[in-house]
Amino acid sequence: MRSFYLFKRNGGIFYVRFVDPVTKKLCTARSTGKLLKDEALVQVYEWLYSNTVQKTKDSPAKRFMSLLTQKKLNLDEVLEIQQAISAFYPSVIPSSIHPVSASLAVSVSPASSGTLVSSPSLLSYLRYFWDFEKSDYVQDKIYHGQRIGQRHCYEMVNRVKYWVAFFSKDFTLRDLTTLKIQEFEKSLRGKNISTLTMNNIIKCGSIAFKWAVRQKLLDENPFEGITAYSINSKERGILTNEEAGKLFRIGMWSDERAMVANKLAMTTGLRMGEILALRKNDIGEDRLFIRHSWSPLDGLKSTKTGIEREVPLLTEIRTLLFTLLLQNPHRAEGESFIFWGNLPTKPVVQNVITEGLKAALESIDIGDKEREERNIVFHSWRHFYATVISNNVGERKAQIALGHLTPAMTKHYAAHKREEDLQQVADASAQIFSSLLA
Predict the structure, then answer these.
(1) Domain identity same for 301 and 421
(2) What is the mean pLDDT of each run of 10 residues along the chain (438 residues)?
(3) Residue 41 counted as domain residue
(4) Do 382 and 248 lie in a common domain?
(5) CA Rg, the chain, in Å?
(6) 167: domain range?
(7) Domain tally for the chain?
(8) d(CA 239, CA 260)
């Protein structure tokens, strides 16, 4: 069962209702005072960490057992409890048994010294580690202001299936060795998967085991010394200028939102999540303010780099964005999603945009087979934009619009210099894309 429910009320403020671990009932709604989901989650986890969550009155023993059986205690808390019990009641719990048994399914086996050593199941630990709502690792990152999304955790949980196919359910965390990981890698190489996917599968475990060392569940990280795979993923394909112009002049679009989103991506290099997150107050006179990204699991969140930026906006595209806003059945001043969906709190699902692109490509004789062979997808527009802008104004100026600048580089260039560079990008965009949109 979830430990809390986060929701938005009128005015855009996020509220939270905690679940009492004993009664399993919802507590009274509590305002986080935050308008952004990321900031609201930080506040919620801060309350959880500081133990200021509302609860119903009950005996300490009953509350402790409820927290224990529902796996609501993090590993540090369980360790502290275990050490206290060992100190005051040494005959009750042997100090050599690790407290993680209270949070995860464990296997207890004799160690070489004859004492009992407990260790969680490897597979149980991986699932627990990437559980967005339960994981100590996730809560720790959020509490310290670091970015981690539900989608990322969801993808990592999906990668656990590769571990499940190789390791038995009785295989414990402490059974893991570098040699065993190498055997696991060999098994993956026979599955015809890309090296990028290989690295992500390995990362699913390596991050978790590094944390396990920190939590004293492992003496050392078995991934130390394991070499990462070189990435040989298929290069992203892009349309030619002639094909792009033809796509928007005579291409058949199934949905106007799909057509506008693809035009916007071509002329700004925005990512899908950044486009879906756009709202009325992000539209300037001659530019877009990229403040958020959208994820189906996380909702509105910060951009991929965590840095807000501005991108030049062509007059024609600005008109199209406001036209979409006028068609939005959920209009609300400043808060409306430009690429609106069926619900006022969510933009259109991205399939409408991606499938619209495929249908339009088909209408100009770029069928599924050719599209797949050339690896042309919605994200190809970002590569298209990067190519044409870099060729005209230089790579560094293109980085400003693309949002590839590091914080150090951002500080390095003065604000007036960035404005001058942005204007050069805007001039180049107007010259390059006007002919394609004509």
Answers:
(1) yes
(2) 77 83 77 85 78 56 66 64 61 47 51 52 92 88 83 91 92 90 87 84 92 88 76 72 91 94 92 94 92 88 83 92 91 78 91 95 94 92 83 64 50 45 72 74
(3) no
(4) yes
(5) 26
(6) 119-233
(7) 2
(8) 17
